[in-house]
Description:
By secondary structure, the chain is of the alpha/beta class. It has helices at residues 37-44, 87-103, 122-134, 150-164, 181-192; strands at residues 8-13, 25-31, 63-69, 72-76, 107-115, 138-143, 169-172. It starts with 7 loop residues before the first strand and ends with a helix. The structure holds guanosine-5'-triphosphate and magnesium ion. The site of guanosine-5'-triphosphate (GTP) has 23 residues, from helix 1.
Amino acid sequence: MSVYPHIEFMTSANRPSQFVADSGREVAFAGRSNAGKSSAINTITARRKLARISKTPGRTQLINFFELQPDQRLVDLPGYGFAKVPEAMRKHWRELVTAYFERRQSLAGLFVVMDCRRPLREFDLQMMAWAEHRKCPAHVLLTKSDKLSKGKASAALHWTRRELGDSATVQLFSALKATGVDEARNYLDAMLAD
Ligand SMILES: Nc1nc2c(ncn2[C@@H]2O[C@H](COP(=O)(O)OP(=O)(O)OP(=O)(O)O)[C@@H](O)[C@H]2O)c(=O)[nH]1
Ligand SMILES: [Mg+2]
């Protein structure tokens, strides 16, 4: 059973004119290519095939909008930081994501998805800065926690919390093992609530 029973894919936007109507509240998922954004969305919404999961980093270059219920959305932002993409694609990413952050009134919260083995890299910090600039709350999912021992995962969690201080909340997550799902839903629901 899905906890968001009415969730459905709305549209993929390749340019700002294709963004869905900017009303209500939405939470965006950002993160490096291959960090596990789409997997996290699928696990949190308990819909296995909602957001496309790719084994090729950087495949999702579009902004994908999903409706949870009228006037509540999840947004899967295109991944960043993949070294091998051509400059033209990087420029496209920059323009699209900048336009999103600059004009999106309904942006109510940001989930930043990071591989727990490599947290807080350059672009991740840039995303956090956008959130701070927009005064929208940020929550960090340290995902793929199944890839680390309990001790190392816990060390990554504490290190990231210390680095970020009050600027964001942080948790461990695994789409594979469904770890941290309730915690993530609680943060998501709080951001979506008025
Ligand atoms: N072990 C493990 N693998 C994961 C987890 N989450 C995602 N993966 C794998 O990591 C790869 C990338 O996952 P995606 O969810 O497509 O990542 P993404 O951030 O959406 O990637 P882009 O859309 O390309 O930016 C896939 O092969 C997933 O199966 C996890 O919690 N544990
Ligand atoms: Mg994706």
